[in-house]
Prior knowledge:
Layout: E1 3-5, E2 8-10, H1 29-32, E3 39-40, H2 54-57, E4 61-65, E5 69-75, E6 82-88, E7 95-103, E8 107-109, E9 111-113, E10 116-118, E11 127-131, E12 134-139, E13 167-168, E14 174-175, E15 179-180, E16 186-194, E17 204-209, E18 213-219, E19 226-233, E20 248-255, H3 262-265, E21 279-281, E22 286-297, E23 305-310, E24 315-320, E25 325-329
Antiparallel strand pairs: 1-2, 3-9, 4-5, 5-6, 6-7, 7-22, 8-21, 9-20, 10-20, 11-15, 11-17, 12-16, 13-14, 16-19, 17-18, 18-22, 19-20, 23-24, 24-25
Protein name: DUF4432 family protein
Amino acid sequence: xxxxxxxxxxxxxxxxxxxxxxxxxxxxxxxxxxxxxxxxxxxxxxxxxxxxxxxxxxxxxxxxxxxxxxxxxxxxxxxxxxxxxxxxxxxxxxxxxxxxxxxxxxxxxxxxxxxxxxxxxxxxxxxxxxxxxxxxxxxxxxxxxxxxxxxxxxxxxxxxxxxxxxxxxxxxxxxxxxxxxxxxxxxxxxxxxxxxxxxxxxxxxxxxxxxxxxxxxxxxxxxxxxxxxxxxxxxxxxxxxxxxxxxxxxxxxxxxxxxxxxxxxxxxxxxxxxxxxxxxxxxxxxxxxxxxxxxxxxxxxxxxxxxxxxxxxxxxxxxxxxxxxxxxxxxxxxxx
Length: 336
């Protein structure tokens, strides 16, 4: 996916460093073609069906399309749902409006959007990562990277935090998740729950400052209560990883118990913390899940994004910790 910013073309989304035909043919489709952003329904594994669901592995059908819109559909054999993906562009904007409609499902399901951002061309700690204010944060509760499987993690399992700049390490001390790439040779997972929307902050956001531009995502925290950080920096050495998946960061908007299977999420393991991990779906209802993913040019030394707020009905103002700010056209009401 390319965005044009003035005379520049930027490509924030990651591509796996392998071709589909180069890896084990028995791998799930999503690993063979790992790239960009994809819907996970359910989020994580399931007893029957591929990890992250048919939506992340199946072949979508074209329902309708045009220069500024693509409407896709997919039958999910596991849940019985009909899932639609509608991507829309608007003149004068560097944004992708993404809506997923899920109908025909019955029961409690985890779900999420799974963009993977590419920091691999940046120097150590050059990129900046941040989210809107959050009220709960934790490293994955179990062993996300198992050395017995030639996987290695740096963060402390179950480590709680209130600041992305001070996340517990397994060997003591803390590390700064707002600077990336970092901790090469490790693979980790952390999750935060956004504060509820308010009149002043009607949406939640995630942001990554790259080379002279910011990639950001807007969401309704009632639909996507949490953001998962899949910190993939060469910590996996099995197939197809082989230590070469470097400088990638999943900034994933979810309703899930980390990346565990949907059966685990259905047990509501974070109820005591007030963190929902599934949503109820009903056969006679259509659920609409909306996000906006966009880019905007930022000045030199912009720093880490500290706020993204409305700047009128069709704009947002993005401010860095340097005090510098930019405005960009975007219909933020889309996610509400």
